[in-house]
Amino acid sequence: MKIDLTETTSSKINQALVSARRAIGTPAIGMVLTLVIVTDEENAYDALKSAGDASREHPSRIIAVIKRVSRSPRSRRDARLDAEVRVGSDAGTGETVVLRLHGELVNHAQSVVLPLLLPDAPVVVWWPEGAPVDPAKDPLGALAQRRITDAYSAEHPGKELAARADSYNPGDTDLAWTRITPWRSMLAAALDQQHVEVISATVEGESENPSCELLAMWLADRLKVPVERTVSAGPGLTAVRMETKNGVIVLDRPDGSLATLSMQGQPDRAVALKRRDTAELLAEELRRLDPDNTYEATVKFGVSKLGGPAGPQPAEPAPAAAPAAAKKTAAKKATAK
Q1: What are phi and psi of 164, to 5 degrees?
Q2: What's the rounded Cα separation, in Å, for the pair 260 and 271?
Q3: What is the CA radius of gyration of the chain?
Q4: How far apart are CA 260 and CA 281, in angstroms?
Q5: Do the beta carbons of residue 90 and residue 20 sit within 8 Å?
Q6: Which residues pair with 242 in a beta bridge?
Q7: What is the pLDDT of residues 62-105, one digit of tens each?
Q8: If DSSP states are collapsed to H, E and C, what string results for the chain?
Q9: Half-sphere exposure of residue 17: CA atoms within 13 angstroms, side-chain side
Q10: 168-181 burial string, b = 16+ CB within 10 Å, else e?
């Protein structure tokens, strides 16, 4: 069931939600959290679809906040709120409210969202793209116990990771970190089987992929060994190699789907390690609402401490003296003689 509301208010939206639930015969609310999505028109469809799929595991009230850019000075002064209410089969297992903010209201989104939050339920805010520099201090982020960003959507993922480290607050997380959960589990299990000391490691993956940097930083932070970040053609993460005193442990995934785990003294094993879609990543993050201390330690480790293309670069040689300056120096020396 869908209800369109033009030039409305938060109070009227709440009334529409109650009326819609009664109309479809589900007056009881069985949702466990409120998920606020801050996005734009271009990415709203994909974000809402992923959130709807994730709500099958976590029934929730989904509130999409779309800030409409005003083109003229007059329209920027006029505040207007349009909304779309979806209940029943059109909203997965919960409820969906799509808010379109116009004019001055764009700067006060929190005042619109606050009355729509489920009472006594956790709040999660997700920025599919264009996350603020400090999510916890953002007016909408301040309403949430959990704040989800995605460094992969940033123009410069390396700088985005640095910004996430500088502004980290308990409850922050990033989907670039969620993407490497199966890799971390597999590598930890491999080391549990071997019980050997790791000397060094290499993480290989496509360039401009923050998940590769996060996995390399996680290994360096946990194992206290030098880790090199190398670049491959992808897709995504392609391989991790850990040098040990008993040989090399290799987890290789060249096709983005099936990986091979190789360890000294054991036959190679095929491992399912497919690249997951956004709905799966979001569902994983919604399973925990407490601070992720491991993510905090990893993101604060710093990309600059890694070796390879993503790590510290050698200093550029000083430029040679300009010909004119060299001639002037020679003339002074001749005069002195």
Answers
A1: -65, -35
A2: 6
A3: 26
A4: 23
A5: no
A6: 201, 249
A7: 999 998 876 656 655 678 899 999 987 666 678 899 999 998 89
A8: CEEEECCCCHHHHHHHHHHHHHHHCCCCCCCCEEEEEEECHHHHHHHHHHHHHHCCCCCEEEEEEEECCCCCHHHHHCCEEEEEEEEHHHHCCCEEEEEEEEHHHHHHHHHHHHHHCCCCCCEEEECCCCCCCCHHHCCCHHHCCEEEECHHHCCCHHHHHHHHHHCCCCCEEEHHHHCCHHHHHHHHHHHHHHCCCEEEEEEEECCCCHHHHHHHHHHHHHHCCCEEEEECCCCCEEEEEEEECCEEEEEECCCCCEEEEECCCCCCEEEECCCCCHHHHHHHHHCCCCCCHHHHHHHCCCHHHCECCCCCCCCCCCCCCCHHHHHHHHHHHHHHC
A9: 22
A10: beebbbbbbbbbbe
Amino acid at 38: V
> Alpha-carbon torsion 7, 130, 184, 293, what sign?
negative
Two tokens, residue 246: 């008993």
Percent of the chain with pLDDT over 70: 86
Whole-structure pTM value: 0.85
> Are the C-beta atoms of residues 90 and 24 closer than 8 Å to each other?
no
